[in-house]
Amino acid sequence: MRFFAFIVAALSLFMAGVMAVDIQKSVLITYPPETPDSVLAQAKKAIEEGGGTITHEYKLIKGFAAKLGEKVLDQVSALGKEYNALIEEDQVVSAL
């Protein structure tokens, strides 16, 4: 009986840890051309400090691709409101 109670307790702790994990999303974040570079730097810093990663930095447009959690996504979205940041989920694009 004690073994069963131990298994149930261990599974409960494991599930609590799994549920606490912030799901990572792949997103593209772009800004209008007149956006200061400091705004992009601030967003990238918030992503990295929040456990996300910058996967690509664009040269022709002001923006980057990243993998980040929901909490960090909300934070970056709030940082970009003044400059109309466009945040969209990364996806495969194909020609017809």
UniProtKB/TrEMBL annotation:
Name any Gene Ontology BP term.
vacuole fusion, non-autophagic
Q: Which InterPro entries match?
A: PBI_I9 (IPR052471), S8pro/Inhibitor_I9_sf (IPR037045)
**Keyword annotations for this protein?**
Signal
- Which superkingdom heads the taxonomic lineage of this protein's source? Eukaryota
Query: What GO molecular function terms would the record report?
Result: endopeptidase inhibitor activity
Annotated signal peptide = 1-20
Query: What protein family does this chain belong to?
Result: Belongs to the protease inhibitor I9 family.
Q: What is this protein called?
A: Proteinase inhibitor, propeptide
Taxonomically, what lineage is the organism?
Eukaryota, Fungi, Dikarya, Ascomycota, Pezizomycotina
